[in-house]
Amino acid sequence: MQDIIDQVITQLKTLDLNDEDVAAYIAGIVQEDSIPNDEKHGAIVEFLTATTEKDTSSVVDQILKDWEHTQEMVAQAEMRRKTQVIADVQERKRARQQRFMEEKERRKEEESVMGAQRQKSIPKEERAMRNRLLEQYSYDIPSQKVSLGEGNRNAEIIREQDKHRREEMKKQHDAEKERNKMLLENQRQKAEKAKRRTVKKEKQRM
């Protein structure tokens, strides 16, 4: 309000008028959006005619132009502010998406490394188990004779135990795979919930 009053005072000085109350009255008319400019012009000219004999029409024209310019500047500033707000929101959204993709890629790499390590560890475990079985069922050939039938039975026992061990390892691997799948799904759901909460908060702020 004070800005428009100062503008009016500046123009009234050209009419040798320096009355802040008069300036405030005219500023009130100028700021009234429901009144067309031509009616504002006529009302202000009529009012000033009672206070001075000088031509007031051009002064009133300048007062109205100054007000329109001020309104345009305010509108432009508001537009810039809204544009910046939208840009900030989009930048935050882009940053969240980038962090999400980076986290997804990191988890993918970790899973790949863990999978490779499991694949490498299985042959070692198999070899260790085979060695234990062979030690358990091995015989000292020079000191003890082993019949063909006993040798076949021992080999069959080793095969059965080896088969059982592989089945157990497969069950453990499948169980671990299912557990990892559930963990990843829980993490994905938590990330989606956090994302929805963030978007909701941002909408509320806007």
Order of helices and strands: HHHHH
Which geometry do the CA atoms define? rod-shaped
- Give me the count of strands: 0
Mean model confidence by pLDDT: 79
In helices, the fraction of residues equals over 70%
Give the strand content.
Answer: under 5%
**Largest β sheet strand count, sense and barrel closure:** none
Poorly predicted segments = 139-148
Give the termini separation: 27 Å
Radius of gyration: 44 Å
Number of helical segments with 4 or more residues: 5
What does this structure look like?
With 206 residues, this protein is mainly alpha-helical. Helix content is 84%, strand content 0%. It has helices spanning 2-12, 20-30, 37-49, 57-137, 148-205.
Quick recap of the structure?
Helices cover 84% and strands 0% of the residues. By secondary structure, it is mainly α.
Provide the descriptors you would attach to this structure in a database record.
mainly alpha; rod-shaped; 206 residues
Question: What are the SSEs and their pairings?
Answer:
Blueprint: H1 2-12, H2 20-30, H3 37-49, H4 57-137, H5 148-205
